[in-house]
């Protein structure tokens, strides 16, 4: 039964799996070609490809939605779900930054600054306003996701 469920998810989410596999293959090929391209860089390329696969899958599902279905702008994401999603991004991307930079405070700073810059650039490109409360919400979620492994290890030891 577990194999059947795994096969079903693989069939339904083939875009995500394909993108992650392609990203991993590109990262491994780059590691073989470039001597300075280590495990952290391979993980970064794989994560970026995974995020690209998620976007590809989301756009394919959105275009396949029925005509009478409400648009994404009409279906706001609840704040707790958005917080958990952003915290997961903070956990994953922050861990890669921490591995690459070998310093937690520097990795957290790079995570926060790069995220703020990307949101502001995205707001400028799409011509939508970026509110300070939304930026603070995003930073709080990223920091929570980044410090979660440290907090768990500290609490359990």
Fold and architecture overview:
With 157 residues, this protein is mainly α. The protein is 81% helix and 0% strand. It has 6 helices and no strands. α2 (14-33) runs antiparallel to α3, α4 (79-101) packs across α5 and α5 (104-126) packs antiparallel against α6 (132-156). The radius of gyration is 18 Å and the shape is globular. It starts with a helix and ends with a helix. The mean pLDDT is 82.
User: If you average the pLDDT, what whole number results?
Assistant: 82
Q: What is the CA-CA span between the terminal residues?
A: 37 Å
SS element count, helices: 6
> In oligomeric terms, what are we looking at?
single chain
User: Largest sheet, if any?
Assistant: none
Radius of gyration (CA) equals 18 Å
- Secondary structure: helix percent: over 70%
Q: Structural class of the helices, strands and pairings?
A: mainly alpha
Shape: globular
**How much strand content do the residues show?**
under 5%
Number of strands: 0
The sequence of SSEs as H and E is: HHHHHH
Name the poorly predicted regions: none
List keywords for this structure.
single chain; 157 residues; mainly alpha
């Amino acid at each position: 039964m577990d194999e059947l469920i795994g096969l079903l998810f693989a069939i339904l989410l083939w875009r995500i799996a394909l993108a992650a596999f392609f990203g991993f293959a590109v990262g491994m090929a780059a590691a073989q070609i470039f001597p300075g391209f280590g495990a952290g860089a391979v993980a970064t390329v794989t994560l970026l490809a995974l995020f690209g696969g998620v976007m590809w899958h989301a756009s394919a599902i959105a275009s396949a939605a029925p005509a009478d279905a409400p648009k994404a702008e009409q279906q706001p994401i609840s704040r707790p779900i958005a917080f958990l999603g952003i915290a997961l991004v903070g956990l994953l991307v922050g861990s890669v930054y921490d591995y690459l930079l070998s310093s937690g405070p520097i990795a957290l700073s790079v995570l926060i600054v790069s995220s703020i810059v990307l949101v502001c650039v995205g707001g400028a490109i799409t011509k939508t306003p970026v509110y300070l409360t939304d930026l603070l919400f995003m930073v709080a979620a990223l920091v929570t996701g980044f410090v979660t492994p440290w907090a768990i290890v500290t609490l359990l030891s």
